[in-house]
Every structure is written in C-alpha cells, then in structure tokens.
Amino acid sequence: MGAKIAQIEYYLPEKVLTNEELTALNPGWSAAKIETKVGIRNRHIAASDESSMDMAIKAAKKLLKYHAADAMDFLIFCTQSPEYLLPTSACIIQDRLGLRTDVGAFDFNLGCSGYIYGLAMAKALIESRIASNVLLLTGETYSKFIIDSDISNKSIFGDSATATLVTYSEQEQIGEFVFGTNGAGAENLIVNNIGAKNYYTCPKGMSPELYMDGPEIFNFTIETIPKLVQDVCSKNKLGLSDVSYTILHQANKYILEFLTQTIGIEPDKVHIDLWEYGNTVSNTIPIALKDCLDRRIVKLQDRVLLAGFGVGYSWGAVVLNL
Amino acid sequence: MEQFTALFAEALEREASVVAEDKFREYEEWDSLAVLSIIALIKQNYDITIPRKEFDELQTIEELYNYIISQA
Question: Cβ contacts (< 8 Å) between B50 and chain A: which residues?
Fold first, then answer.
C-alpha cells in the first residue's frame, strides 16, 4: 500500500514583469546580468484583485477537468497569503470547487519547504486510511508584500499556484522524508509589520513589507542543504548516484549552481529553470516536477529527489520512485 | 593576500585593479549579487561562513582577508 502523485497542474498569472522593466526602474542594473546570474527573464505577477486562493482555485480547476470533483476526500492548501485571517481559505476553496461536504480541508503556513510538507501530509492521510484522494494546493503572491523601492526582491519572486492530486496506490511512489526547522533564522525572511505581534492592520501609509537578508539566507542554504540531500539519500538507502534527477527549490540560479557543485550532483541531473517564473516560493517544486514530466526529463521508474528550503527557517526533502 | 585579491577580482568579474587597501563596497561592480559571490568564494576556498552582520563591518579587502585568517 502506498501513495502516488497522479497529476500536477499549475497556474501563472497573466501579467509579466520583464528584466527590461526592472532595469528601467533601476538604471544601475543590467538585464543581461539578471539573466546570467539570477537565471530569471520573466516573473508572473498576480493582478491587484487576484489572490493566492483565486489562483489556487484556477490551478485546481485545470486538474479537475481530468478527475471527478466528487472523488476528492481531502483538501490541503499551502499559503502564506491566506484570503482572510479567518476562516481557513481551504474551506472557501471546497465550496468554490464544488467538492463534497464530507471532506477534510485545512491551510498550512509554509513557504519554500511547503510542498514537501504537503506531500508528507497527503501520504500520511492516505496510508492511515483517512483519505484516498488528496488535493494538495499551493498558492503564493509575495509580489503583494514587496514594496515599490525593493527592486532586488522584485527581481527574484514571482506569483503562481499549483494543484497536485495525491492518490492511493498499490505501489509506493512517495519515499521516505527528512525535515528540519531552525526558528533562529525567522527574522531573516519575514513580513513583520502586520500580524498579531505588532498590528492587525499596517501602520498608516504602510503596506505589508517583505524583508529578506539575502546573505544570511545564502549562508543558511549552503550550511543546511548539502546535508539535507545526504540525509534523505541515506534514509531512502540510496547513494547520490542512484538518484536519477534532483529538483531543489528554485530559489535562484546562483544558489542552485553553488549547491550543485558543493553537493557534487552532475549538472545534467539537476533542475535549474527559473527563466519564465522566478522564485515562486512553495510553487517552484510542483511547477518543476510537472515541467520535467511533460518534457520527459524524468520518466517512469526514475528516482527523483525533491528538496525545499527557506523561510522559517524550514526545510524538507523526499525521494519519489516514479 | 595576492591570491585572495585575485580570487576577489575574479568573483566580481572586475577588470580594473584590485588591491588590499580598496574599499570594495565602493566598486562599481558591488551589488547584492556581489555580496553572495564573495560569501561563496570564502566558503569554497576557506570553508568559513561569515555572518552578514560581521561582513557588513568589513570595509577593505585587507580587513576581509584578516577576518578569514582569524577564523581559519
């Protein structure tokens, strides 16, 4: 008895922010440098009246063209930009998608590690016989937390949403997980001017403001992720060379190339593609996995290592046996 | 030190001269990506992680080099 990923769909908002538009905002920047170093040409930006939940519903609807809504018996939504403080966005999504009312539904608040957590929860729900068709959604709109003058973060982050159907399977496709947490790094990637700690509404004249200490996030990544990859291989009783393909959270090209080299992964066995999306937080791994499946970069019987890491700090990894 | 200035120039892709006394934050090439390049250089070559707050206090290439030596 096991669980498998039956299908992935994603949604990208219509509006695109190009490097040329970014360099027009900051004449000191070069579009070519953003492309070669950060590896991003475009990011999709949610419309002012389009939320993470709206986008997640659009991604889910794509998936439900192929699977009956009535078959879904659990809904999990990963976001750090929920529709309201309460109720839980997942409850509203259940209604908008026309899912049955005897389903479980909840949100969870994680960023770049979120998809790994979602897969772990979906697998656990299925293998404990609580559910057999879990709809796992991710949706994020960091663009709404980035202030106009913060061109650095604007250059990195894109908005999007994904939908993954995880189902019961005779064969186990979702292997063993490793997780990690270090809240000492909380202040290095944070939106702290709204929320219970300070204010429920932003101070006058302010909007929610994302702060990222890039160098510290980079330090965290290079200290933590090589060991995470090693640990998840050991836990799955594999050597790195047994892994067919590795999909790390698509943070930026520079970090991914550094990690690839440090870990010692062959460059043609690791995914680096932020070109059209940017860093879409919890969406990068499902987008990459779908692209790899569609382009036949990964195929049946491949072992695919997935690793997410970032805001929290929070990290997690798993090996899929496709 | 000479080797370090050479590595520094390479990481920044700087063609103009790089000497120990230079205040590297004043270089035309200095930006948020340059910071990552230098942190990566130090990690790769010396296996040292510099906390960002300590890095911010270092102004010249010589100070940076002395920091590395003091941690090694």
Answer: 219
